[in-house]
Amino acid sequence: MPQQDGSMHLGTRLRKLINERRGLLVPGAGNALAARVIEDAGFEAVYLSGAGLTNQFYGIPDLGFISLNDVAAHTAAIRDVIGLPLIVDIDVGFGNAVNVHHTIKVLERSGANAVQIEDQAMPKRCGHFAGKTIISKEEMCGKIKAAVDARIHDDFLIIARTDARTINGLDDALDRAQSYAQAGADMTFIEAPESVEEMKLIAAQTYCPQFINIVIGGKTPSLPLKDLSEMGFGIVLYANAALQGAVRGMTNALDHLKKTGELKEDPALVATFAERQSVVKKEDFDALEKKFS
Fold first, then answer.
1. Average pLDDT score over residue span 158-181
2. Which residues face 209 on adjacent strands?
């Protein structure tokens, strides 16, 4: 898909949406099919989730197993099938500042409009898991500067995440986030706040728009979008809502099949055959076949 929306670059559109600080609601996708479903549902942006990719592609936990090649391939696949701004989770950037510089070049070419990079030490782990460790603030600032230097388009956005809240407390997380913005990040993301009061304090930061991650069943309280919008968050992420919904859907359909030995086009259990073909735009390929035959 093109990186232009009429006359507006998709990264420029994303920056505009974030700067409205109205709580842009962004679901995560682990693959191109999920990204298509998100676009068809009417959302304004898509987030390629590192956890979702790890869970869906490899069937293992979010413990730092994915590679730059994995992320670049999924980024390109998603870009080919959606016309929305695409935010890509790059974990720790796949190495040091030099590696981050390379990572940004690869992912911008692959079709990303923004990346989210975090200050965990390698190997990273889900922000809502125990046992995280973080690098120094100075090292992370170097990674952010490398990311800014590597981007081609000024509206390829750098979202800097800190996992310091769980390790050192909120004050250190707030200090790190502000330093990351000063290093060039366009948006900051304090992972895993544990109360509404902490969320309000994070959202009130004025140096750049703020990002909140609502992990279903995680450490951060789940609030209505209206409340998060009123707080002033730039993005409200549900990174793995689609994944968790898909797991439940698969479980229900397969349990029914195992118990009964039969599964029909029951809309309470499965998408119809026609719906499945519609999601993958089979009619477009039929038109191409007709055009070139």
1. 97
2. none
